[in-house]
Amino acid sequence: MKAERDDDCSARDGSPWWQSAVIYEIALISFQDSDADGKGDLTGLMSRIDYLKWLGVDAIWLTPIYKSPFRDLGYDISDYRAIDPAFGSLDEFDKLLAALHQAGIRLILDLVPNHTADDHEWFVESRSSPSSAKADWYIWADAAENGGPPNNWLSRFGGSAWEWCEARRQYYYHSFLVEQPDLNWRNPQVRSAIADVMRFWLDRGVDGFRVDASAVLIKDAHLRDNPANPDAQGKPPPQRQTPVFTDDRPETMQCIEFIRSVIDEYPERLLCGEVQGKTDRIGHFYGTERPRLHLPLNFALLDAPWNALSLQAAIDAYFNALPDGAWPVWVIGGHDKPRIASKIGEAQLRVLAMLLMTLRGTPFIYMGDEIGRKRVPIPPDQVQDPFERLVPGYGLCRDPERAPMRWDDTANGGFSDGRPWLPLDPAGSTNVTAQQNDDSSILMLFRALLRLRREHACLREGDYHPLRSQNDILAFERVYEGHHMLIVLNIADEPRKWPSQVSGRVLLSTHLDRASGALAAASVLLRGNEGVILSRSIPGSFV
Predict the structure, then answer these.
(1) Do 6 and 459 form a contact (C-beta atoms < 8 A)?
(2) Between the CA of residue 348 and those of 308, 352, 353, 422, 528, what are the distances in Å?
(3) How many CB atoms lie within 10 A of CB 482?
């Protein structure tokens, strides 16, 4: 149903664009193919701009599109200033960026400052000789006394994080694949080179970056061994250490501050980033006297147990961890995260969609979340993810999240005229076209929620007032200049009653079938898996 605009809820002037934006992550290789090679590309994305505009997203974030051997979804970069030929050309990129901006959609690129591919010209020179001009651009160390690796550090993809280089007679460090050597961020020349890369894309007009692996940019200068993880039972080998000396070192924050200083040379550009650690660490990444990330990505909704009390606690803990003036951010999916629909089911995904779009903060969604997409089964002989190939048997494969979008019910889902690089979910599965033709679909719910958020400043900028969750109902208020909205979300699949007497106006139900209209002094009966947004424009709370 069409949301009504509240004239008394106009947006405040001067707030950064990302505070009111909904950001949509796209793995370009899996979005839309235009040349029948089975891989998505820039021209394919260009053809889907109308869909993004119809959905109502304000910005897209692309996983890496740079030249790459593509061993790890393009996070192994051979040339930061070139588009991979499988995706297109710089000219096609410029045309895409202009078309997105014309449609009112901003573009965020992935920045991968921690490592390069081993065929990057920087590493080729660095490994050639200990006296080369870039000898210190990567992390090199002599062998231990026994000739083995310098210490016990482990790669996230299994085995030692050190690889022998015969040309230099030294080991180099790789946090991830052997073919992804880590840059030495203690070297000011490296920092300057990454800054130049950023300016190259910012000068072309991109609207910001998402920083990959931002918490591991610096490693311990003394190369001290990591201690054993006391909770390692049943965990994959890379998690059998506590990465005290390789992850989230204090000096890493200086690196992020440097990256932010480059972003701040350009007006209205966003810096968001992948961080790690528990919720109480997230404030660390915003910065204090020296700013760091605008939006450290927060996966609390994705990681929390799915019940009203746990969600209430996760939301409260996150808000309490934010520094004064920090803007919240909520993420429900991504190219590295299991599909939330596979965890909670489509019925509760509708509830999560309403929660995401009504909490204070910037929402991030991942392509396919809006159609309730679940993990796609990948036959063992078609696995592409190096995580699963190198550390098998622990459920670490990320291919089920990265499988191509299904746009329609044809054999290749409208994604490609060739064989897709990864299998799609079976024909008959959820797809965009079918859901666009179904007024009650989850896609139509996402679209209605994005429209409602855009039309009501109370949802974009209002204060968050928690209410006590009870009877399997998660509830809170948003308040803006005397305007109140009540959000009540039934986390159970059976009917539940919100006990307080409320009056106001029904704006939206996750079932998309409640008529908009007055609700006077009555308790709210929620059906199973239903969320409702109620509004009133007079002073005073709902409860």
Answers:
(1) no
(2) 12, 6, 9, 27, 9
(3) 13
- In the chain, the percentage of residues whose pLDDT exceeds 70 is 95
Q: Is 265 a residue of the active site?
A: yes
- When pLDDT is cut at 50, 70 and 90, the band that residue 538 belongs to is low
Cβ 372 vs Cβ 342: under 8 Å: no
What is the pLDDT averaged over residues 463-492? 95
CA 264, distance to chain mean position in Å, is 22
- Catalytic-labelled residue, pool 265, 280, 438, 439: 265
Query: Looking up tokens 């460090």, which residue turns up?
Result: 173
In the set 212, 247, 274, 425, the catalytic residue is 212
Residue 513 is a catalytic residue: no
Place of tokens 């999916």: 333
pLDDT score for 306 = 97
pLDDT digit string, tens, across residues 39-95: 999 999 999 999 999 999 999 999 999 999 999 999 999 999 999 999 999 999 999
Give the closest residue to 488 by CA, choosing from 443, 437, 524: 524
DSSP state of 17: G
CA end-to-end span of the chain, whole Å?
Answer: 26
Written as one letter, the residue type at 37 is: D
| Torsion angle of the four alpha carbons 315, 317, 320, 321, in this order, in degrees rounded to the nearest 10 | -110
